[in-house]
Design goal:
It is built from twelve helices and no strands. It is an all-alpha fold. Helix 1 crosses helix 2 (about 35-40) and helix 1 (about 5-25) packs across helix 7. The protein starts with a helix and ends in an 11-residue tail after the last helix.
């Protein structure tokens, strides 16, 4: 990378860090583009050379992480079942996603901002909209892997929708935990994904999912 490109990257990363720090400390709605530019020591015009809007800056690192996941899905062996391919792609891309994020901003800041998303209506709406777009992209990858026409066969969209729903549940539960870090998010995600097939195909009336997964359910003293 040449000196000019390196300087541009450093300016972009400084703007990203300034934006996310302000979003987590002041709030997304309370932070302006001018605030971000001032914190980074650059002009508003410089901000717009790198980002089209506050939202663009807010989700830049998330887009980076998502691109690593998409590439991991694309690289999965063709013989894997679709849901297994998605689960294994996520599990095996954790390290590369973490490295990619850390090259731009501290992971701790990235995780703190995720909690801001959950508590900010404008950000949550944008996050869900982007998640829908990502699901469509991944569904097309799954359809291509399986040799299916997505307009004729609903299964690629269905399996990706199930996967996306598990991710949303995981994010919501994880974000409510005050002391949860990256390891907790990874373990919670893996645990929930491992329970998808039993949860959808098993007889729910037979016995609790927790018991089938090997844990002991709470029993009252009256039983």
């Amino acid at each position: 990378m040449g000196l000019r490109e390196l300087k541009k990257q450093r300016t972009r990363d400084l703007l990203l860090r300034s934006a996310l720090e302000l979003f987590t400390e002041r709030g997304y709605e309370e932070t302006t583009v001018d605030d971000i530019a001032d914190a980074a020591g650059v002009s508003q015009r410089t901000f717009f050379r790198y980002f089209a809007s506050k939202e663009d800056a807010a989700f830049f690192v998330s887009r980076l992480a998502e691109s690593h996941f998409v590439e991991a899905v694309r690289a999965r062996p063709p013989g894997e079942a679709p849901l297994d391919a998605l689960r294994l792609a996520l599990v095996e891309s954790w390290s590369t996603i973490g490295e990619a994020v850390e090259r731009v901003i501290p992971m701790e800041l990235h995780l703190r901002f995720y909690r801001v998303i959950e508590s900010t209506p404008a950000l949550l709406a944008a996050h869900l909209r982007r998640a829908t777009e990502l699901e469509e992209e991944i569904a097309r990858l799954v359809a291509d892997r399986e040799g299916l026409d997505m307009d004729e066969d609903p299964r690629p969209r269905v399996v990706v929708a199930v996967f996306g729903a598990v991710m949303r549940v995981t994010e919501r539960i994880w974000s409510a935990r005050d002391d949860a870090g990256l390891a907790a998010l990874r373990d919670l995600t893996a645990s929930y994904l491992d329970q998808v097939a039993p949860a959808l195909t098993g007889d729910w009336r037979e016995r609790p999912l927790a018991e089938r997964a090997g844990s002991t359910p709470h029993r009252s003293s009256e039983t």
